[in-house]
Design brief:
single chain, CNF1/YfiH-like putative cysteine hydrolases, 13 strands, globular
């Protein structure tokens, strides 16, 4: 797993941006595919998720995910839930030790949050729709409701698709610029006429920068470019493969 230096310095927080390494899946899912929504063998995915829980230091049944729908919905978590009762959301927050909050991605941005002093952590799935729609701000609001302070929260932006690999059409850019003309700064022209390269990482970081956080850490690793470590929806699409895996990013409060 890849770790954030500022989050690693928090003695009561465990976290990881997990890669494809040390998994049971094979073929196009080779490695640690954690996506139950993929067509991979369920037994492989369940074991891969279990290994994430083991590495994070939580019980396997306490590693929690949500049904991600590219929204700004945040789930405040107090207890674990059954696999058949997974809520729809794109972020989770908790003040309960021993619960692992896990986000699945395959090019979108995983963001992990922690206020170690207050004992509150969060995890958000921030694709372009979620980031534009306010999932990051909603996650911070939910953390504050649990007792966190914005100026004490550290946020780490994990591996996602880089601007060099993220070509978008004119309608995509128009959606952003219509909301705020200043968002034109996140687009540069691509090789194709009328198309652009979008900088999701910087957009995410700048959205967080408006929130008065203690620290924003950005890992700056591209999921598209590094097939050894990461799954990528866009890389799979370009390769004409029938499906793709998902990597997991997770955070928890340690039991004391």
């Amino acid at each position: 797993m890849i770790q954030s230096i500022p989050l690693s310095a928090m003695s009561n927080v465990s976290h990881g941006f997990f890669t494809r390494a040390d998994g049971t899946s094979t073929g196009i899912y080779a490695g640690r595919n954690c996506g139950l929504g993929s067509d991979d063998l369920r037994a492989h995915v369940v074991e891969n998720r279990g290994r994430v829980a083991d590495d994070l230091g939580v019980k396997r049944w306490n590693l929690l995910t949500v049904h991600q729908i590219h929204s700004a919905i945040v789930k405040t978590v107090k207890t674990s839930w059954e696999s058949g009762a997974v809520p729809e959301a794109d972020a989770m927050v908790t003040d309960q030790p021993g619960l692992g909050l896990a986000i699945l991605t395959a090019d979108c941005t995983p963001v992990l949050f922690a206020d170690a002093n207050a004992g509150v952590v969060g995890a958000a799935h921030a694709g372009w729709q979620g980031a534009l729609g306010g999932v990051l701000e909603a996650t911070l609001d939910a953390m504050v409701a649990l007792g966190a302070s914005r100026n004490a929260i550290t946020a780490t932006i994990g591996p996602c698709i880089s601007q060099a690999a993220y070509e978008v059409g004119p309608e995509f850019a128009e959606t952003f610029i219509t909301k705020d003309p200043a968002y034109a700064a996140y687009f540069i022209p691509s090789a194709r006429d009328g198309h652009h390269q979008f900088d999701l990482t910087t957009f995410t970081a700048d959205q967080l920068a408006t929130q008065g956080l203690a620290e924003i850490d950005t890992l700056k690793q591209c999921t598209y470019a590094d097939a050894t470590q990461f799954f990528s929806y866009r890389r799979t699409t370009h390769a004409g493969e029938p499906d793709y895996g998902r990597q997991m990013s997770a955070i928890s409060l340690r039991r004391t």
